[in-house]
Write a structure and sequence with these properties.
Blueprint (H helix, E strand, L loop, with lengths): L26 H58 L9 H5 L22 H8 L29 H22 L26
Length: 205
């Protein structure tokens, strides 16, 4: 079930505005004042979410601008190197032509993109309000297979384990296909690829 990222609170502005144990001279006036107060709270919650949204957009735009600047600097350095190359001036020996160096990339790959640290603040607040899973780990001492009882209820590593099993199966299948030798059936024809000739019997006339 998907969780809402941002929820404006309070949802019901007129509910619970009249105290149960207090005698009020006018319930209608109490409901009106309570509704007005909850409406102000809704506006406050809405402004908080708007500030969070613009802050998130600012961080994303700043990150994109930094990556663009790094890419532009790499393009400028490459353009300078290309203009400095001149095959007519520089002499390359035959030994240098045959020399091959192993390519090593200095690019770093981003990992843990969907971790707790990279979660937006609004989603982190919503996640913190969720109910905690039941304490099923107390049943581990009664299990004989050694598995964690909580993983039958919730398992954060389920999709990673599923992906890992699929990758291992694909690797084993590729290795198995490489190990098989394709056997072609031998034909009954001669060595030169032509069939056997039939000798025709001569009939006397």
């Amino acid at each position: 079930m998907p969780l809402p990222k941002r929820c404006v609170e309070p949802v019901h502005v007129s509910r619970g505005t009249v105290p149960e144990r207090l005698q009020l001279p006018s319930e209608l006036e109490a409901v009106t004042n309570g509704t007005l107060a909850n409406t102000v709270r809704q506006l406050s919650s809405l402004s908080k979410h708007a500030e969070d949204m613009f802050g998130e957009l600012t961080r994303e735009a700043t990150n994109l601008a930094e990556r663009t600047n790094v890419l532009q600097a790499r393009i400028d350095r490459l353009a300078i190197k290309v203009t400095q190359l001149d095959s007519g001036v520089e002499e390359v020996s035959l030994q240098d032509i045959q020399m091959r160096k192993a390519f090593r990339s200095s690019r770093t790959f981003q990992q843990q993109l969907f971790s707790r640290n990279s979660m937006p603040s609004a989603m982190l607040d919503t996640y913190a309000k969720c109910d905690r899973p039941p304490p099923l780990e107390k049943l581990n001492e009664f299990r004989d297979d050694g598995r964690d009882a909580r993983k039958f209820y919730t398992d954060p590593d389920y999709f990673f384990e599923l992906w890992r099993r699929e990758m291992l199966q694909d690797t084993e299948r590729i290795q198995h296909d490489r190990g098989k030798k394709v056997r072609q059936p031998r034909s009954n024809s001669g060595a030169d690829g032509r069939g056997t000739r039939r000798v025709l019997a001569l009939h006397s006339t």
